[in-house]
Amino acid sequence: MTAKSYKKAMKQLINKPAKLAKYLKHNKPKDRKTGKGKNQCKLCGRRGGHISRYGLHICRQCFREKAKALGFHKYR
Question: By residue range, what is the domain housing residue 13?
Answer without folding.
Answer: 3-26+39-70
